[in-house]
Amino acid sequence: MSISNAYDKKSAAIYTYKSSSGVTSFSDIEPLDVDFSRYRFDCYACEVDSLIDWRKAKLYLKPYRHDINSAALKYDIDPAFVRAVIHAESHFNPQAVSKQGAQGLMQLMPATAKELGVRNSLIAQQNINGGVKHLARLLKKYKGDSQLASAAYNAGEGAVRRYGGIPPYKETQVYVERVGILHQRYGRFSHLNN
Which residues are tagged catalytic? Predict the structure, then answer.
């Protein structure tokens, strides 16, 4: 099954699939007639020219529900915000790896993951727990401002500090807008996710 039929065709991708003999293979060409997974090499919601209608895009209410809710409760953060960031970062692909080396559902950089106590960013539970811990710290730093927390999550705290708010990077601006849209939409279904 393809994980990524909604992804932009211009993005660099690696496809992985198993041959009939069970050997795992990787390719930069989409395989024919086999189940495969596509790994993105960029932020799902950062594509400036994305044609996705973020107000109507499919929401993912069930995947990782327990892990998201547990981490959100532990770090006192809105699970709808966590779900929005996961959607924006990896489109719920736990094996996503960016060009810069960010990994997993919440696209943690290896150094950040290590600081957060994450041993393997490709294990969903560890990735979510570390990413939520990081988001909670950002929300605390920015006094609950989810736009600034989103901007810092995308562009880094240094960029937010340098510009005194959301940096003027088009990618970060569309990311913050799309996370906000997704947060609002996931929030409408919060009662179903407990």
Answer: 89
d(CA 76, CA 169): 30
Based on the number of CB atoms within 10 Å of its own CB, is 169 exposed (0-12), middle (13-18) or buried (19 or more)? middle
Supply angle C-alpha 26, 83, 3, rounded to 5.
Answer: 25
pTM comes to 0.78
Nearest-5° Cα angle at 111, 169 to 91: 55
Q: Tell me the pLDDT tens digit for each residue of 144-181.
A: 999 999 999 999 999 999 999 999 999 999 999 999 99
Residue 122 in contact with residue 78, Cβ under 8 Å? no
The single-letter DSSP state of residue 97 is B
Residues 183/81, Cβ–Cβ less than 8 Å: yes
In contact, 150 and 180? CB cutoff 8 Å = yes
